[in-house]
Structures are given as C-alpha cells and as structure tokens.
Amino acid sequence: MERFKKLLVFTGTEEPESAIARAVVLAMENGASLTLMDVIKPIPRILRLFKGSATPDELQRLLIEDHRAKLRDLVSEFDESEIDIDIVVTVGDPAMEVIREVMRNEHDLVIKAADGFRGAGRVVGSVARALLRMCPCAMLLLKPQVHGDFDQVLAAIDVDRQDTPHKKLNEAIAELSLEIARSDDATVHWISAWEMPLEVPFELPLESPLQPSLGEGQMDDVFSIHAENIRTHLGELYGETGIQGVTPEIHVQRGPAAEMIAEMVEEVQADLLVMGTVCRTGIAGLLIGNTAESVLAGVSCSVLALKPPGFVSPVGGEIVESHVAS
Predict the structure, then answer these.
(1) Looking at domain 1-148, which of 3.40.50.620, 3.30.2320.30, 3.40.30.10, 3.40.50.10860 is its CATH number?
(2) Of 49, 44, 3, which Cα lies nearest the Cα of 26?
(3) Tens digit of pLDDT for each residue in 44-74?
(4) Which pTM value belongs to this model?
C-alpha cells in the first residue's frame, strides 16, 4: 500500500491499539505522515445552567486534554519509530468530524478498528457505515486482533461494467490487492460475480418478445462463454497492472454478487477484502452501493474500501472529489 502517504487513524473505538500498530508500520514503510484522531461528545447543554468551579467550556477543554493525554500514552511505545505522529481531538459527531479532517488535510487513507467484533460479529457499525458512504478517501476497517501481515487477500472486481469510473476503480482494486499480497507474502484471490439478465427477477416480463427461447444446453453455452469472457478481462487487467512476483487466483461465480463475495470470503478464509463502495459518481451524498452495503453487512474479515474517481462528499458544505491514489 505504498500509494498512501497521509494516514488518519480514528481511535474512538473499543480497541484502537491494532489500528494504531498497523498504521505505524504502514507509515514507516511508506514514509507517510500519521495522525491519530479522537472525537468527543459536546458537554450537555443542561450543565450550562449550573454554576460551579469550572464552566462548561473549561470542562470541555479539560476533557479534550484528557483524551490527548490518553492518545499520547497509546503511542508512547512507538517513540523510537522515527515518525512524527500528530494528535487531533475534536468535539462533535465522530463520522462528520473525521470526514472534515480528511478534507482539511487531504488524508488519503482512514484506518479504523471495528467495534463490537465478537465471534461472528461484523466489521461495519454506524460510524464506519457513515464513513464508507461519505468519506472521500479510502478506508481500512481492521478486525481488532489484526496486528501483523495478511495471509489471504480477496479482491472483488466487477468487469461487466466498462465505463471509465468503474475501470479506474477496478484498476485500483487490482493493483492494491497485488501490492498487499506481495508485501505481506499473502495469497491473493480475485472474484468476479455475475448474473445473466434473465436470471434477475422481474428483469423482463415472461411474455416479452425479448425473452429468448433457449434450451438448457444453449443456456449452459451462454453461461460458459460469458464466464470465459470475464476470465479474459481479469487476465488483461492483471497484465495491465505490471506487478510482478504475485499472481491472483481467479474465481468467476454466477449468482448475486453480495452472496458470492461473502461465500468466497469464508471459502478462502480471507482476512482482507478489497472492494469498491460506490457504484455511481458525481452526486453529492450518494449512498453506498447496494451490493457493497450487502457485502459489508455479511463479512467478518478486515475490509479495504475504495471510492471511484469523481466521488463527491457532501459533508461540511465542501465539495472534495476523491482520488484513487496511484
């Protein structure tokens, strides 16, 4: 992940240590800057009605300093790492404040440990979901126990869509998955899931003249040809990356993308899923794509989520386009 040069770790989680440790290593490898950020709630308004030894503003300031001190303690073990670690503590809504910090200082990767991860727990909570929807840069959601290298990397690539934003996003997903696998000496898998239009419920009325009358054997031939075309596209994509020393294992699955990706995560025991999170671009406030939403609700591994070029964040009244780092 050499492309990421301005890292931001959100520490307002139950177990931020794993995210901090991973970020420090990444910053050292990349020569990147590193910022730790926490967000605290505002002092309740009702406290402003009481007169005491400290004003609400003073209490807020003391609370901020307390959180700063705790963050300094968390990173004290990395004092000899020879990297400068900035600490930012703000007041407000966690997701909104993180996104504003990304905009102000042009961070290109947000790292966050998943909250409430127990057994079959999922990695996406409310803060993570808001960041995935509206943050203009890439995001790495880590299982709390993850400190070292990844072993099995799975990249979800949709080659059926060949418009420019999707092609750029596919290139970034492919390149990052290969870079991580090469760096961590991991096995990398690429999955592309697809459905024929006739398999999608209500895609066409049964009486439609567009409904082809193909026999079972002919349909199997159509499926085989389409699957082979996808494999060809993935092979071409691999060649275009120019990355040597690691070769992806290709998986072409017919079925709903969210289901196929989640099943493949379990099948290959992936500990990192690399995927895009938005299907369309150019619309401020556009929600995370339906497929990505379903996938992220069902996986229990770490996730590296990328935005396509041209994605616009609606936060703070500022228009900041995402950039797929290269």
Answers:
(1) 3.40.50.620
(2) 3
(3) 766 656 666 667 788 889 999 999 999 999 8
(4) 0.84
